Fold these 3 entries.
Entry 1:
Amino acid sequence: METLRISTRSFTYKDFAPLFKSNVRVSLTKDSLNNIERSHKRLLAKIESGETIYGVNTGFGNLSQIRIDPKDQKQLQLNLVRSHASGVGNPLEPGLVRSILILKLLTYTKGYSGIRPVVVEKIVQFLNKDILPVIPEKGSVGASGDLAPLGHMALALIGEGSVFYQGKKMMTKTALSIARVKPLVLKQKEGLSLINGTQVSTAIGIKGLLEGDNLLKTADIAGALSVENSFASRKVFRKDIHETKMHPGQQLVARNVYKLLNGSKIVQSHSNCGIVQDPYSFRCIPHIHGAVRDTFVNAASMINNEINSVSDNPLVLENGDIVSSGHFHAEHVAQAMDFLAIGFSELGAISERRSHYFMKGVKSKFEPFVTKNPGVESGYMIAHVTASSLASENKTLAHPASVDSLSTSGGQEDLVSMAPWAGMKLLQIQQNVRYIIAVELIIAGAANNIASEKIRSGKGTGIVLKILSSTCNYENGDRILSGEIESIAKVIKNGELVNAVTKQNFME
């Protein structure tokens, strides 16, 4: 089992990849624990001084003007967790829950939260015992922290609610008994600290980046295969052309497509065909795919910054001051995911346009809908309709969540980020794009089977065609295609295509 060592070093979204594959062991460095202990001592000193501290000896949100008697302060934290565990919907997947717990540890290691070391030790214990809180996916507006979902996380830590223990859903009390784990007893500020923060929003953003990294590369592969088998030009991907524009994503995509088509006799077969310009969806692959790549880089930077930030409130500063702030507000994460949603929607849109091109047929090469027996056969007519449906769905989903807001908490929290919804939309868009690209790959492979089967493909695209032919039964003509689309979408998701071509150095 892989071990993830939590320290004060900087983390990136890529460090979270193992969490989405299986459970990992977690350990904390001594420096991290020392930071937490020092912060706790500073909080205790302020409590003993009698100073008014939000969420410690006051109510919450619009109730912050109410002073809490010392005898009620522990109950205050318990009540907070119970009342805020108000989420609904399907449970978040295990990888997201693990990421949430790790992100919570990372914010604590900075030493600004005031909680006891036992809190982080309990989180580590949950991870190492494979006890994952059941966290409903809906209920957070991405400000004042992801309150409802983190309320469910905290609920499990105190022995209430439900968990998945080694993959099986059960009452938390039962799981802790089996695993011989004692529930956490909350003290001042600890309930507030647990439910405060952007960890749910950020975890979803991390998954969007991990999914997106592979999807960007797959889009280049599909684009190259379509260029080749639609008999479009390779010349427009030349390095010297794209060096005249300063966008790094554009230059990278052009290099990828050019490499994938290296050695293709198909693209050479029509070098003097007289066609001056191909449609935008072919000729502008570097410009459109590249723009999405550059958006991805910017979004990754914003989310990486959030991973390494403190999102607690109030903050216990090094000089002992305890101050309220808005660090729990997930606007950066929301906008990053909204930008990604727009970008990946465009990635699906251009893929659908390339599939549409094949539907028209190419004179002397292949018939409309890429059929072998037109009229009797419908070919890939409705597979393209499926792609069109998903591309249209994405256009609606791409509407930014971050431009919407509803005032909550009696008006105290009057402009929220809607980051979790921005993230969930992004993941749905990415799933749709996998299907759209799967359709494009299947259609481009079918065109190759009909028009180009006796002409050598590119060295990179040839690898792709071998993978496609092992799944797609091109020789049978009309057939049920939904299973093939699902299978190729899985091939995309598991990275098989990308790994196969990068292994041979046909893309970056």
Note: The chain has a mean pLDDT of 92.
Entry 2:
Amino acid sequence: MPDIVLTTINARYVHAALGLRYLAANMGELQPHTRIVEFVLGQRAIEIVEDLLALNPRIVGIGVYIWNVDECTRVVALLKKIAPHVTVVLGGPEVSYETGEQRICTLADYVITGWGDVSFPKLARDILDGRPPAGKVITGEQLPLSRLALPYTQYTDEDIARRFIYVEASRGCPFKCEFCLSALDKTAWPFELDGFMAELEKLYNRGARNFRFVDRTFNLKVAASQRILEFFLARMDGSLFLHFELIPDHLPEKLKETILKFPPGALHFEIGIQTFNPDVQARISRRQDDAEAEKNIRWLREVSPALIHVDLIAGLPGEDLASFGRGFDRLHALKPHEIQVGILKRLRGAPIDRHTESHQLRFNPDPPYNVLATECIPFNDMQRISRFARYWDLAGNSGRFQQSLPLLLGDAPFDNFMCFADWLYGETHKTHEFAFERLCEFMHVHLTRVRGVDVAVATDAVLTDYQASGARGRLAFMDAGVRPRDAQNATARARMRQARHVSA
């Protein structure tokens, strides 16, 4: 039985907690006595506690994030009620700030703020040796990256076969965007590249093919980016999938040349635009050359083989609904495969909090701490944007409405989709649990009765999208004798939405 259990609650099974693996890798002589155990949102807290206590640990370390803090709080409460002798140690961004205001921190024995790579192993040794520190809150020690053991041997064969493999070539960020915790970093710190590349080689040789880089600024140092991309180019096969976060206005020609060598669908780039409003950019300390960013996104979409996912944030201080809509339309004109409409969240410790009173930012007191209203966007409109975001993910980002969506959006994408979102919510009062067949039927009704699209044109478009999904049933609007043509097999139905974008 392990003395130390490292655990967290992931959003999905395919996610693997990189932070836990860093802790395990740096446990030193305690590593043989340490085990990683991960859970998934939706599992009952009482069952999680049962599984943890079955291991008879002396110390349980828990990674706490904005998406799992409620569930983790229930787990900690049960642990301390059932097994008070077990020492509970918390870490992660959610508990690194405002620790005195959080119930989970009150319940736990210790909280490590900031970097825990070496601070947790030291704390564990002290506890097991009978020298527990008197203070509850321990400030994490940030060592040079060269002194950290890399975590990649901690990925199991099951992880490699079934999960995303998260890696990082650098930590931190040199930019100061106030909505992000990375604004608190002094700079970005690269890992020693030769050692990192050697770890990539080992992972690849073990069968890893789905690599998710968590670097905030993958293309900051082009020489390093180039070397990493060339590594994968030399090992390219049909199963390799690579995810990176890019700085939008920094794409040198040399990097473009390398990107062009990849096959379609192998590269997935996430790009943060967040807002095109220059006044808002200045207010939140975001430096961005919009013209250069647009040029790069257009090139990536029209010339490169990469899949493009671009982020916008609604509810930033000083941005109203009209400004956000103009930004959405400006971005949509660039035709990225996905536009992620996010709602501003108050991350604990993030500098955005300085605008709370001056711009009347009213945040949800419960996770995920999303903004509910601002001086520029009242509560009812913020609710509309939230529904817009959810429906856009279903209809816009899914890649399932290649023919229908252009009819819906017309020459005013934001306004027309907001009209659809308002109408759909009015018809259903739902934002989740839409069967694809039902969504197709709603799309047809809206196109014909609200947008005024010719019935034959709308029917052909929606049926084409329906058929492309591999669905076989009949839709409510289908005329007698009209049936989906050449329905695809189960393999086609199961393909990732990225694949739908590649084929578009």
Note: Residues 8 and 63 are 5 Å apart (CA to CA).
Entry 3:
Amino acid sequence: MVFPVVGGTQDTAYEIGNSLRFNDGDSPSLQFTPSSDSNEQTWTVSFWVKRGVIGTSSSQMIFASDTNYDEYVFCRFCGTEVTNKTDMFQVFMVEPNSREGNVRTTRLFRDPSAWYHIVVRCDLTQGTAADRLRIYVNGVKETSFDTASYLNQNDDNVNWNSNVPQAIGHQKQASSVERHLDGYLSDFYNIDGTSLGPDSFGETNDNGVWIPKKYTGSYGTNGYKLEFKQTGTSANASGMGADTSGNDHHWTPANLAATDVTTDTPTNNFCTMNPLDVGANLSNTVFSEGNCKLVKSGTTSNNGDQVVSTMGFANGKWYWEIKGVSNPENMFWTVFTDVLGGQAPYHNNYAYSMYGDGNGSNSQIYESQEDAQKGYGIDNGTCFSNNDIIQMAFDADNYRLYIGRNGSWVDDNAASGGTITSGSGFNESSPTGYYQISTAAAQAGFYRFAVVIAGSSVAHTTEINFGNPSFSISSGNSDANGYGNFEYAVPSGYYALCTKNLAEFG
């Protein structure tokens, strides 16, 4: 069995610096049209992908010959429109005269915390049908398929590497139905004229984990490498669609912003919120921006349902930021102890929350314990405002929670001033410095972060920044290891929640 790559100890020989975040609701894409036809029979596409929203109605396109012609290829995660095939991976090819190749995995790709490495290997000259299109996931060839049919030997008209529009993250069919990717792409290669296996792009490290490695071969006439490392928006060498192979096949971005270039990569996987770990009544909450943005409609009450982070920790010191875009006074931002078998944050767990009390007048910190509210830690007479950035610093070694707002740490019953090391701890009578977590709670399990929807019918928008922000950052601050991109300075000794830091400090 092959498990998705989620991080951990990684080799440092080849580091991937960036990924590109595709938000389905924005209709994002990269576009490129080769200047001439090349090899449509033999080619290899290699990429790393981390999924955003899971189980969507529309299929999510990874790459396609973006054309209305009767010959094309596309690669996608299936949506509910493909009956009973949701979240399967599919490569579909159409040749003239309605000849089709259709390979769709039995495997489901439903882990939004994982980076998957996928290689699509095409060689239509092969005599054995199954060798004409091969799929590899994390270095292993897929052999179990929901369906598997192949084009004829020596077919050569699928409009890949040809003089028609090519797309990444998008496909437009003749019916004018458009489909887009929701998630992250990284280290994207197209090799024109060569059929390659996964070992050209990855390898197994000493811990048995499949990791990226630098490709050293040729690219062919229409081949390219996309690193998404620049933050421009034009189709040139300084744009996010820049081809860094040396072939200068630069791609034009559409509906992609500078904030969509992230450092969440296969070699340093960042925490996000988990659309699969939610309360039962969150059907009216929409995940977007790579699961870093939550939008709840104001039509119904959610009665305190929650969304939980993809990563947790048992020790170490961790920092993240939350932007309360709209109606933050009706949101809870919570650190909780995730007891094995528990359903966070209010089911037999301890939770430590900061929130606006809903009346627009106060922000509060309190502790809940096994479904019982223990008491308020602070009632500071100041409530959150739209677009406030809330800072959370959690010391899991000493069981302390620090709260900040717009660059100032809460101290001595005030919403401004103070430092992260001052005070003796929040309590109901004299809150100063930090909130000291009880010993029982400290021993209850490991910690995770949750966004809790207040039990009201008020609409909310929240964006969570674990170091991979979905919103614009004006200053830009990283932790001491150089990881993360935050609005405010990361406290000394605290770190962004990502796999490199977890391997070192977690």
Note: The chain has two domains: 19-262, 273-505.
